[in-house]
């Protein structure tokens, strides 16, 4: 029995990434209308037959996050009602992931709510990259394929001359496990920066643990919006003798306040992915690596019912 036909669609969040994925898969991008009524309501129409197809919807929940989530939910519902055989939500950046626990009185666990909404809409599985917290996979009652961007970063930095005297640093204690995994992959020492958050956009780095003086520092983090944590860590690292500081960040959703901070030149280079649209000013020290080959390989494996874990021969995650 032949496998169902593969079809890939996209909302308005990151069509460039979806097109690149389709180029790697050698399939055309599916046609769908995703726009808004004058009052702001989202309208979706799938413009081709998907009955019995294996469908993939590429839609990171980048800004404006709520609009992107609604687009994704409505597209999934439209596909379910159009009799798709299987619907996979491809969410390179999974928003609301930081709201993954009840750390204050009377607050929601919004990451769980979003997981429930995706399942209720009709998603059969989820494909995502570098979740803010690994346990979010357990919020879903459907399969989750969790990819790591680290092989993409490794390919870019493995031959860089500054790697010989580098130290991997986490910009906070919470990312220490991720930093140690990256350090193991690169066979490098690692450390962390202790910080104190003074407001939603301001961070004060207070102390360091690890080899810094005369070293080229690789700061690793899963995401940044204001670049406050990264810049505060970089300032402290350079005050303590770091030769250079580069940030490796999976998801970069930076805004105006981050532009100002990055232009100060404390961070020599930000290395990130195209999980969200990279429409930033050209004068920022940012290198964007494509995760389209990684995602397309995973989609190809899911479509053929093969292992996705085999994409990651490097242990340590």
Can you tell me about this structure?
- With 317 residues, the protein is of the alpha/beta class.
- Helices cover 29% and strands 26% of the residues.
- It is built from eight helices and 14 strands.
- The chain has helices at residues 15-25, 65-81, 110-121, 150-157, 176-186, 228-239, 256-263, 292-303; strands spanning 6-10, 32-36, 42-46, 54-58, 86-91, 125-129, 144-147, 166-170, 190-197, 203-209, 216-224, 244-252, 269-273, 286-289.
- It is globular and about 60 Å long.
- It starts with 5 loop residues before the first strand and ends in a 14-residue tail after the last helix.
- The mean pLDDT is 93.
In N-to-C order, the SSE pattern is EHEEEHEHEEHEHEEEHEHEEH
Using only C-alpha atoms, the radius of gyration works out to 20 Å
Strand order of the largest sheet: 10-9-8-11-12-13-14
Strand content: 25-35%
Q: How many helices does DSSP assign?
A: 8
Helix content: 25-40%
Oligomeric grouping of the chains: single chain
Largest sheet: 7 strands, mixed
| Category from helices, strands and their pairing | alpha/beta
Strand tally: 14
Average pLDDT reading = 93
Poorly predicted regions are none
Kindly report how far apart the N and C termini lie: 37 Å
- Shape annotation: globular
């Amino acid at each position: 029995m032949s496998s169902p036909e593969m079809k890939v669609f996209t909302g308005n969040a990151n069509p460039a990434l979806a097109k690149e994925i389709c180029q790697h898969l050698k399939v055309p991008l599916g046609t769908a209308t995703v726009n808004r009524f004058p009052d702001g309501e989202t309208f979706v129409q799938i413009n081709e037959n998907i009955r019995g197809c294996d469908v993939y919807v590429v839609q990171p929940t980048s800004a404006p996050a709520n609009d992107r989530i609604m687009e994704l939910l409505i597209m999934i519902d439209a596909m379910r009602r159009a009799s798709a055989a299987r619907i996979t939500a491809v969410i390179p950046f999974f928003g609301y992931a930081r709201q993954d626990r009840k750390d204050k009185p009377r607050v929601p666990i919004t990451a769980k709510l979003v997981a429930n909404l995706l399942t209720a809409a009709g998603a059969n599985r989820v494909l995502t990259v570098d979740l803010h917290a690994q346990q979010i996979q357990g919020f879903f009652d459907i399969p989750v394929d969790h990819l790591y961007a680290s092989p993409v970063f490794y390919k870019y930095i493995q031959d860089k001359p500054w790697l010989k005297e580098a130290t991997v640093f986490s910009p906070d204690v919470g990312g220490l496990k991720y930093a140690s995994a990256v350090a193991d992959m690169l066979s490098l020492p690692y450390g962390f920066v202790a910080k104190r958050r003074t407001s939603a956009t301001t961070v004060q780095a207070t102390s360091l643990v690890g080899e810094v003086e005369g070293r080229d520092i690789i700061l690793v983090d899963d995401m940044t919006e204001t670049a406050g944590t990264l810049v505060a860590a970089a300032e402290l690292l350079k005050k303590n003798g770091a030769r250079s500081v580069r940030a490796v960040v999976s998801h970069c959703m930076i805004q105006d306040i981050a532009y100002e901070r990055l232009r100060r030149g404390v961070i020599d280079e930000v290395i990130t992915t195209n999980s969200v649209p990279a429409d930033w000013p050209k004068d920022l020290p940012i290198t964007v690596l494509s995760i389209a080959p990684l995602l397309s390989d995973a989609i190809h494996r899911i479509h053929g019912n093969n292992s996705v874990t085999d994409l990651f021969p490097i242990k340590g995650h």
